[in-house]
């Protein structure tokens, strides 16, 4: 199979491990991912504090403390207000970091940066550099992320995600969680009774998103171009959902979706995307406009249409798809990079207004190198570089983006808004 990472499979064997160690080659860890048989980590969460915690809300009874080697460490650094407080971060993590299990997690909790106290802001911003640096060195498939928050109850869905195998390919991220009402949530089927539409859902990342949202209880509508309708129909039938054959660039796409969903929509995942790579000097206008149209203009058009029509219900979620190419830029991708950066602009501007006016959150996932048909088409050398040039030393899988989407789509994620979360194994590109 084209898409397989043969090097990763090889280093997973005894001779492969032996040979690559002798040659001093990288040895990416086999990442632990969610499965129905092993949905969580065994080993518990070690709770640590640096400074005097400034969090309100309940403590974290849902994350049991470890008996032995922790699967994860949760460091509450919200009370760190100065450089002396940062020494407590070192003192807390230095003795335990080695003992965190393979594929384990380090989650640092920080406070919003103060505009009135530059010592606090310096210390809290320092946590970002700390987190990203630890992510680069920790190894063994372990991840490190920073969550800025004030209230623990609004952050439960985020912490559950980050402290689980579902966040296998999310590392080096800074996520801000605001405040929201506490909800009664069915954590095993959080999307039960909700409808989710995934554009470009027939294959690749979109198909994994459809599958994961269906696992979480959603009734899924798989939208894709008419040419992909056989795959879309097959997937929809398997997931007990429906399919919609529609080119998302059609001027009336929003109206057609609204028509197909008279009972409304709860989760809109803008996943359809294309690449038409060429350096700018060689890029005909058609390559520019087709990429901008699919990846950005149609996202803007359908979002506007579905919000205006009231198809997206209160409590709704929009998850758009950016890319690390939109954050870092990429050779041959001025069109694609522009379109994906545009998605980031859309998310940041619309998020507060959509929440205030429609009760809908707007976030984006920004995938790095994910093993799909899109990346299988990348020339071998660049493909191999893309795979290895991140802290986890391997490409991600479509399911990694899907799990991140499911967290953002979660009914309890109402306090996560306007965020762009990279699913890139902490890629060196644009880091
Ligand atoms: P893919 O090419 O495997 O699948 C994309 C799907 O979108 C296809 O089913 C395609 O038919 C559909 N589609 C394309 N144009 C459409 C249109 N006009 N209307 C409706 N559907 C349309 O791609 P993928 O790798 O699964 O990528 C999914 C998304 O993730 C894209 O937005 C892509 O830019 C983004 N992304 C992917 C990667 C990666 O490494 N694979 C990295 C960063 C971002």
Plain-language structure description:
- It is a single chain.
- 38% of the residues lie in helices and 17% in strands.
- With 431 residues, it is an alpha/beta fold.
- The chain folds into two domains: 43-176, Rossmann fold (3-Layer(aba) Sandwich), CATH 3.40.50; 195-423, NAD(P)-binding Rossmann-like Domain (Rossmann fold), CATH 3.40.50.720.
- The chain is globular and about 60 Å long.
- The relative contact order is 0.12.
- Helix 3 links the parallel strand 2 and strand 3.
- It is built from 14 helices and twelve strands.
- The strands form two sheets. A seven-stranded parallel β-sheet has the order 8-7-6-9-10-11-12, with helices on both faces. A five-stranded parallel β-sheet has the order 1-2-3-4-5, sandwiched between helices.
- Nicotinamide-adenine-dinucleotide (NAD) is lined by residues 199-200, 202-206, 224-225, 228, 247-249, 271-274, 294, 321, 323, 367, 369-370, 372-375.
- Nicotinamide-adenine-dinucleotide (NAD) binds at residues 199-200, 202-206, 224-225, 228, 247-249, 271-274, 294, 321, 323, 367, 369-370, 372-375.
């Amino acid at each position: 199979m084209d898409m397989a990472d043969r090097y990763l499979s090889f280093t997973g064997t005894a001779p492969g491990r032996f040979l690559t160690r002798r040659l001093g080659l990288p040895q990416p860890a086999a990442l632990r991912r969610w499965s129905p048989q092993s949905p969580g980590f065994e080993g518990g969460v070690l709770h640590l504090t640096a400074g005097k915690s400034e969090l309100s809300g309940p403590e974290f009874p849902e994350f049991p403390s470890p008996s032995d080697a922790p699967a994860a460490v949760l460091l509450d650094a919200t009370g760190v207000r100065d450089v002396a407080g940062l020494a407590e971060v070192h003192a807390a993590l230095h003795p335990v970091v080695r003992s965190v299990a393979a594929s384990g997690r380090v989650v640092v909790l920080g406070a919003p940066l103060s505009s009135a106290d530059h010592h606090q802001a310096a210390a809290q911003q320092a946590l970002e550099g700390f987190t990203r640096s630890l992510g680069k060195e920790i190894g063994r498939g372990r991840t490190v992320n920073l969550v800025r928050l004030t209230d623990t109850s609004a952050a439960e869905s985020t912490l559950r995600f980050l402290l689980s195998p579902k966040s296998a390919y999310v590392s080096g991220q800074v996520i801000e969680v605001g405040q929201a009402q506490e909800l009664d949530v069915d954590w095993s089927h959080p999307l039960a009774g909700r409808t989710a539409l995934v554009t470009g859902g027939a294959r690749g990342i979109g198909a994994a998103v459809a599958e994961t949202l269906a696992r979480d209880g959603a009734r899924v509508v798989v939208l894709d171009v008419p040419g992909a309708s056989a795959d879309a129909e097959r997937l929809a039938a398997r997931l007990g959902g429906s399919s919609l054959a529609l080119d998302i660039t059609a001027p009336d796409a929003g109206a057609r979706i609204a028509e197909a969903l008279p009972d409304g929509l709860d989760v809109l995942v803008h996943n359809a995307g294309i690449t038409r790579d060429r350096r700018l000097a060689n890029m005909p206008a058609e390559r520019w406009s087709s990429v901008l149209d699919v990846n950005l203009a149609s996202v803007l058009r359908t979002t506007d249409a579905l919000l205006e029509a009231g198809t997206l219900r209160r409590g709704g979620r929009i998850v758009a798809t950016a890319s690390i190419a939109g954050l870092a830029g990429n050779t041959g991708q001025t069109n694609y990079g522009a379109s994906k950066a545009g998605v980031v602009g859309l998310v940041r501007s619309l998020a507060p207004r959509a929440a205030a006016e429609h009760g809908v959150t707007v976030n984006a996932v920004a995938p790095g190198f994910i093993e799909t048909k899109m990346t299988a088409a990348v020339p071998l050398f660049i493909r191999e570089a893309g795979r290895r040039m991140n802290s986890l030393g391997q490409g991600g899988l479509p399911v990694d983006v899907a799990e991140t989407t499911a967290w953002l789509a979660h009914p309890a994620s109402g306090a996560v808004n306007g965020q762009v979360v990279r699913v890139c194994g902490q890629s060196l590109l644009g880091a």
